[in-house]
Amino acid sequence: VFRNKLTFFAAANVSSSFPPADLPEIAFAGRSNVGKSSLLNALTRQWGVARTSDKPGLTQTINFFNLGSKICLVDLPGYGFAYAKDEVKDAWEELVKEYVSTRVGLKRVCLLIDTKWGMKPRDHELVHLMERSQTKYQILMTKTDMVFPIDVARRAMEIEENLKANKSVVNPLMMISSKSGAGIRSLRSVLAKISRF
Length: 197
Ligand code: GDP
Fold this sequence. Notes:
binds guanosine-5'-diphosphate, alpha/beta, Rossmann fold, 7-stranded mixed sheet, 7 strands, 5 helices
């Protein structure tokens, strides 16, 4: 499915402008700088086509991409800018809460966690939201090339421990590096299966 053409088709900053949910959706979430655009680029090899910026200060939107009319990839706005204003945080939370809790056709949220830094409070907030709305999510540990293998393993155990009582998390967590390409093919095949449900 990742060989299909990727087309940007909608951006929404309020739930009323979400496009119709005609296809199974896979969304990508994480702190700003976690490596989300690099991952989307590695997965699709055609990212950046019509991508809008989610840098602080600019409007935060949820961006919808159609992959060969088989699946929809959704880029959720990055969070956790140290210097983001409270209004920005509230707007993010409102938008993402609405999206994860009401979106028909949302099959999976990929929550990206930087292997070096682990889960932060705002990651936990998002996990909490998804648990409450019973949204299936899986953890992707990013930038594994930056960390010694022993520390990658330690971090994975810590995250699993954190989430072990949770019901909507899909295991196992996956470890990826967009730089070395590690884990990208396995992630593609996991996600391709979702599009066939
Ligand atoms: P985003 O803000 O989540 O979209 O993050 P980006 O994809 O823009 O990446 C943020 C920074 O991390 C950039 O400088 C990337 O080059 C770097 N980066 C992203 N993925 C990797 C990776 O797998 N390995 C390494 N070493 N750096 C990465």
